[in-house]
Amino acid sequence: MASLALMVDGVVIKKFELDKDELTIGRHPDCDIQIDDGAVSNRHAAIAIRPSRYLPDQTEITLRDLGSTNGTFVNNTKVTQKLLSNDDEVRIAWNTFKFLDTHRPNFERTAIMLDS
Fold first, then answer.
1. What is the model's pTM?
2. Could you tell me the end-to-end alpha-carbon distance of the chain, in angstroms, rounded to an integer?
């Protein structure tokens, strides 16, 4: 099962299992992943888990910013929406997470071979 690991100085201090079709991240107590930090918006971001449109028996896990004040970042790039790959670094305001899913193929490293 995929998870988000909260990191401090390169050490995992807490893991959040991604065990629902949609999870919210934010400061509000109703969020699935609650972050007690004033730089985090009440409803900062969401993670959606959907069946893959292209690969049977696979899912796509997408991180989406919900109009946050301080931004959502994947691998130090600000995003509004991004398909996650294993070992991606996710930053919510100033909080760093590592996306962990060793069963997920890394599609960004996939090459397309064209006939010449």
1. 0.84
2. 40
